[in-house]
């Protein structure tokens, strides 16, 4: 666990909202080793999602360095960043964000359209990803035909299918009941422990955070402490 | 799944809306195909290929009658086998039902128009009866006319010498077409030119609206046409000689500048289509901003997302447009068959090419703005619902 997956150095993020200038992150530093499972906690507005977006390459810092898997992603352009995301990061959202017009398997296959894999190989990879999340029998179902937990499993399968080393999860259980949430968190634990995926999860829920190896607290754009 | 499959799936996310939009595209391109065909018919030059008859009228307008003295000169032109003539009588049946009625010389007309089929006895009766009239079968059937009946017809153009607008004719024959095409045209009636000349109040005598030249050889049509017009050039009765088909078209052309009318209709149709499809595309992009942001999150570039939206617009307009043009082809073929080839509403290569250009331009016009919006979308803002 010593090799670094994420290195954040002296990162500042400022949002311009009309005439207002809001500094969300103030010179933040963070290191996350490979195969770690980190829960990011903190009150609303503390900068959790902003930090997650910077690590996931969805946004750029105002200043500072963000290095993920050895790449300086804060220096990449929009197109390069998109290609980098396609190969290196899996995203899981609170509201699943599946494509309602596609079946579960087509949703999972979506990121693979960015690869050079043939149709047969894509189908095989999709089947494996759905097998891992325990939804092989629901492959043909549309999102509206699935429960919330099942939808989130499909979203996790979609995040996994291109085999990224880093999974970025923004409140992945925020829309689920306790039992289903624990199933999803258990699944994330399996992915971390058995498949070696590095996971960064933003959550408000202390019980959910307990599933992580480490809990980081953010407040007013600063990291407060690290809990084991 | 393929990228094309993804585009189609997105297109049909609101099935009813897409189908209704598609129908408006189909309808617009159906109109486009038909109107462009009409336009190309009217904008094309004279076509003498296969013509067996030529129509001669006054150069200025067919309402300006030509003297009967032209007849022997026309008959003497090489390539002319026979010459008939017609004068427009008009005629109104009962209260206000206008009829197509022409006065003519039965002898020459029968020779020039063998397509009209009637027993010889009836032709003879027509020749010999000064007040005789023959009617097409369609017309006779429509009004229940029987041979031997006296048919009262009024004419708003030609009163009789006594001032009466009422004319009485003796129905001496009912003719029909030789085939299905000509049978469909048998909705006209003919009267004797001599009787008309004697009886009309204005003393119009020895003048006709048209001469119809029967050609001995259809390959000579263009030459004969030029000879006729050259013969009467700079005379008080200059002529315009054209094929039967072009003559029929010239009636429609009198409505106005067909090309301009077609262009304005198409402008209105495509402008409306632009609004309808643009609205559909804009709405479609607006309601799935988060989905587009997710696509970008997964690694699709801005350009890919722009491509997806443009592809949707293109697929919608292409499918609807091609279907519309295909339907226009079928409708055109039906019109052509229905008019016995007189109105060749054919979608030629030029119309198809223009249609494809219109499809591409329309796709860009309706898809570009929503596609650019999708391209500009910032993931973080879109996911946060900003």
Structure, briefly:
The complex is a heterodimer of chains A (about 230) and B (about 375). Chain A is of the alpha/beta class and about 230 residues long.
Task: Explain how this protein is built.
The complex is a heterodimer of chains A (228) and B (386). Chain A is an alpha/beta fold. Chain A has one domain (4-227): 3-Layer(aba) Sandwich (Rossmann fold). In chain A, 32% of the residues lie in helices and 29% in strands. Chain A has helices at residues 48-55, 78-88, 104-109, 119-132, 148-160, 178-195, 206-209, and strands spanning 4-17, 20-33, 37-41, 63-68, 71-72, 89-92, 166-170, 198-202, 214-219, 222-227. Chain A has a six-stranded mixed beta sheet. In chain A, strand 9 (214-219) and strand 10 (222-227) form a beta hairpin. In chain A, helix 4 (119-132) packs across helix 5 (148-160) and helix 5 (148-160) packs parallel to helix 6. Chain A is globular, with a radius of gyration of 17 Å. Chain A starts with a strand and ends with a strand. The mean pLDDT of chain A is 91. By secondary structure, chain B is an alpha+beta fold. Chain B has two domains: 3-45 and 256-383, no CATH class; 60-237, no CATH class. Chain B has helices at 3-11, 15-43, 70-75, 106-112, 120-128, 137-143, 180-184, 193-199, 221-231, 244-253, 258-286, 289-298, 302-338, 349-376, 379-383, and strands at residues 53-58, 66-67, 80-88, 92-93, 97-98, 100-104, 116-117, 132-136, 150-154, 166-177, 188-192, 207-208, 210-215, 239-243. In chain B, the strands form two sheets. In chain B, strands 1, 3, 4, 5, 6, 7, 8, 9, 10, 11, 13 and 14 form a twelve-stranded mixed beta sheet that branches. In chain B, helix 1 crosses helix 13 (302-338), helix 2 (15-43) runs antiparallel to helix 11 and helix 2 crosses helix 13 (302-338). The longest helix of chain B has 37 residues, at 302-338. Chain B is elongated and about 95 Å long. The chains are: A alpha/beta (228), B alpha+beta (386).
């Amino acid at each position: 666990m010593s090799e670094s997956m994420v290195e954040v150095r002296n990162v500042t993020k400022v949002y311009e909202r009309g005439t207002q200038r809001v500094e969300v992150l103030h010179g933040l530093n963070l290191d996350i080793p490979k195969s770690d499972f980190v829960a990011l906690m903190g009150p609303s507005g503390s900068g959790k999602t902003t930090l997650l977006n910077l690590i996931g390459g969805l946004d750029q810092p105002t200043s500072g360095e963000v290095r993920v898997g050895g790449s300086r992603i804060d220096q990449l352009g929009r197109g390069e960043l998109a290609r980098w995301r396609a190969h290196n990061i899996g995203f899981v959202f609170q509201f699943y964000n599946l494509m309602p017009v596609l079946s579960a398997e087509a949703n999972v296959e979506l990121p693979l359209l960015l690869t050079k894999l043939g149709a047969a190989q894509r189908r095989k990879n999709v089947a494996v990803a759905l097998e891992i999340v325990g939804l092989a029998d629901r492959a043909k179902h549309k999102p509206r035909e699935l429960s919330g937990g099942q939808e989130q499993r499909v979203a996790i399968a979609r995040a996994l299918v291109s085999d990224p080393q880093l999974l970025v999860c923004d409140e992945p259980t925020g829309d689920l009941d306790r039992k289903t949430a624990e199933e999803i968190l258990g699944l994330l634990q399996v992915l971390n422990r058995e498949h070696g995926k590095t996971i960064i999860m933003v959550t408000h829920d202390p019980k959910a955070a307990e599933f992580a190896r480490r809990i980081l607290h953010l407040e007013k754009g600063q990291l407060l402490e690290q809990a084991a | 799944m393929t990228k094309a499959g993804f585009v189609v799936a997105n297109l049909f996310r609101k099935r009813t809306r897409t189908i209704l939009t598609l129908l408006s595209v189909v309808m617009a391109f159906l109109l486009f195909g038909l109107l462009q065909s009409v336009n190309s018919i009217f904008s094309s030059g004279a076509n003498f290929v296969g013509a067996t008859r030529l129509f001669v009228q006054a150069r200025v307008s067919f309402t300006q009658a030509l003297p009967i003295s032209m007849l022997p000169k026309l008959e003497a032109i090489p390539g002319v086998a026979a010459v008939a003539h017609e004068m427009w009588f008009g005629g109104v049946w009962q209260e206000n039902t206008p009829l197509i009625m022409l006065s003519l010389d039965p002898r020459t007309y029968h020779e020039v128009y063998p397509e009209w089929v009637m027993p010889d006895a009836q032709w003879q009766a027509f020749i010999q009866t000064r007040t005789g009239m023959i009617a097409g079968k369609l017309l006779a059937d429509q009004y229940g006319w029987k041979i031997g009946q006296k048919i009262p017809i009024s004419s708003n153009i030609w009163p009789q010498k006594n001032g009466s607008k009422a004319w009485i004719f003796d129905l001496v024959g009912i003719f029909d077409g030789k085939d299905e095409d000509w049978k469909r045209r048998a909705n006209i009636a003919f009267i004797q030119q001599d009787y008309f000349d004697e009886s009309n109040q204005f003393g119009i005598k020895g003048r006709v609206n048209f001469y119809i030249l029967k050609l001995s050889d259809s390959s000579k049509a263009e030459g004969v046409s030029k000879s006729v017009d050259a013969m009467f050039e700079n005379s008080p009765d200059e002529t315009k000689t054209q094929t039967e088909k072009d003559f029929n078209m010239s009636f429609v052309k009198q409505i106005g500048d067909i090309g301009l009318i077609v262009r304005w209709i198409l402008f209105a149709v495509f402008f409306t289509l632009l609004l309808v499809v643009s609205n559909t595309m804009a709405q479609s992009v607006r309601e799935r901003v988060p989905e587009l942001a997710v696509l970008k999150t997964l690694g699709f570039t801005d350009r890919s997302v722009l491509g997806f939206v443009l592809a949707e617009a293109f697929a919608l307009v292409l499918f609807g447009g091609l279907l519309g043009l295909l339907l226009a082809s079928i409708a055109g073929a039906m019109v052509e068959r229905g008019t016995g080839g007189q109105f060749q509403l054919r979608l030629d290569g030029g119309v198809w090419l223009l249609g494809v250009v219109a499809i591409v331009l329309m796709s860009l016009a309706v898809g570009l703005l929503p596609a650019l919006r999708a391209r500009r979308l910032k993931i973080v803002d879109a996911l946060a619902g900003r």
